[in-house]
Amino acid sequence: MAKSKKEIISIQSVSKIYNLGETVVKALDNVSLSIYDNDYISIMGPSGSGKSTLMNIIGCLDVPTKGKYKFKDELISEMDDNQLANIRNEKIGFVFQTFNLLPKLNAMQNVEVPLIYSSLGRKERIERAEEALHIVGLQDRMTHKPNELSGGQRQRVAIARALVNKPSIILADEPTGNLDSKSGNEILKFFAKLHKDGNTIIMVTHEESVAKLSKRRIDIFDGKIARDE
Amino acid sequence: MEKLLEMNNFFKNIIIGLFSVRSNLTRVILTASGLTIGIFTVSIVSAAVSSIDKEFAKSMDYYGNDKVYVGTWPWSFDFDWWKYRNRPKIEESSLEYITQYSEYITDVSIKKNTWTRATYGNKASWVQLNGVYPSYQDMLSGTKIENGRFFSQNEWDLQRRVIIVGGTVRDGFFQGKDPIGKKIRLNNVTFEIIGELKKQGIGMVPGGTLDNLVIMPSTTFERILTRWGFDELVLQTSPEDIPFAKEEVGMIMRVARKIPPGDDDNFAVNSADAYMEQFNTMKNAIAGMGFLVTGISLVVSAIGIMNVMFVSVRERTREIGLRKAMGATNFNILTQFLSEAVAIAIIGGSVGIALIRLTVFGLASFPIPNFNGATLPISFDLLLVFYTFTVCVFIGVLAGLIPARTAANLNPIDALRDE
Q1: Do B326 and A102 touch (CB under 8 A)?
Q2: Which residues on chain B are in Cβ contact (under 8 Å) with A115?
Q3: B16: which chain A residues are within 8 Å (Cβ-Cβ)?
Q4: What ipTM did this prediction achieve?
Q5: pLDDT digit string (tens) for A143-168?
Q6: CB contact under 8 A, B327 and A94
Q7: Do A116 and A165 touch, CB atoms closer than 8 A?
Q8: Could you tell me the residue ranges of all domains in chain B?
């Protein structure tokens, strides 16, 4: 890993422990990790390995039990709910396996959702949402509702929504898991393009073929990083 | 600026809440109908109570707030008639004692009461008859001589067949023409109309309207109308002296009737305020029931809204998770769901106001005799709207708070995983 790159995320000896009554589950065990600007990482691991927990912590949806998590200069591991919400809003774009579009809103309104929780005015929100839909090539589908779009198109709307706030990282959780191989490949090509344009992408996946396309691969096993190359 | 942005965010969440109301309109309307009924009943009940109040006050004018009445029976809505039926009749002679000994009574009259058939040409009607002294002219309450005159002392002495008639006689017998000087028959005896009373409108107390009343000298009454009826003593005092006057008159009556100490009164001293007290009890009972029913319906509708909000939160758990992942704070989500609950409540309340409006228009356009819908004391001023909205916002917040808090406190990870 070229050290000249700028570090965005620094995870130092992070553990996440769940207390489920009498049993204690160590979902993450003393994990350290650095993520740099314009990385394209895939995180792999069997179910129960802790990759989702790692993903949730990177995505600021959860805070570690132990250890330090720094996002640029901000200490995430010490933040309260509201501060975390602001970080998620400004710094992180989420792409989910099941798209998670709101069915009653059209493509445009779906892309606008993160902007509603920022302090932008209405005019700027619309401009930004249009711009994001342009990037994913759905400029002529703006007023369509999710049920009027194909699976691949829905995932592109979701990607546009992830991009709209110009985040520092894009977190994708099995983004091709619910797509046929053709649409899946399209999405992966699209991620490659985003990476080329300078975005930082972190992707969780099951599939070797998907992981191969990324530039860096992290394997998680039993809450520990088994491989990072 | 910071504040302004916060406000802006606040309103954005309200708008999101309103949008979700729109997308579940059927459910929202059904839920809100409970509140509609509540708001509707509360307005109708308060209108009814204040309407009864007004009508009753009008009836009370007939008795006056400055008079004491001595009769056989107490004025009461729930008297035990068997206690009073054997009491001796009221004698006119008692008036002499009262004039002689009372400090509070300034003027007196007998009032003989009966009902009879009045005829004019081929028209007939039942009227209430009062036989009184000439002094009664100054003791008339709730009305006055509007046309013509009262009978004189001379006419009373000579037992002349002259009468003063109530407001409905003019329309009933004379097609709205001046009845003065006309002759009508009462109990088959001809009387001349010399005066007319101002029309008063409907009353609520038995015999409490002056409009079908006929007044004549008590001497004439005694000579001609010897059928069943009852006598009362009408005693003039001033409103603030009523309690003293009643006590004093009671004592004088006991002396006049030579009732031994320890025995019960065999007469009743009445005044309008006693009626008023009983009436208020009744009115409060009606209002109490009405407001109880309203209160229950408001509570039930609040529970309904709460239920729908829980369903809404349950249905949209993933949406909540997504919004939180996208940067919504707990407060954003709380506002969104609270405004949804408040919107449902306000929809219910607004429909309620619209219904009341329609009802009043409906009543006003149906002619009911002696009742004018336009006089229904429901006022559509801003105050009613303001109260309704306050109540709705209150109920909305109350009903929405727990579901909205549940939504706001959802963990985004679990919420996103929700199937």
Answers
A1: no
A2: none
A3: 116
A4: 0.92
A5: 999 999 999 999 999 999 999 989 99
A6: no
A7: no
A8: 2-59+277-417, 66-271
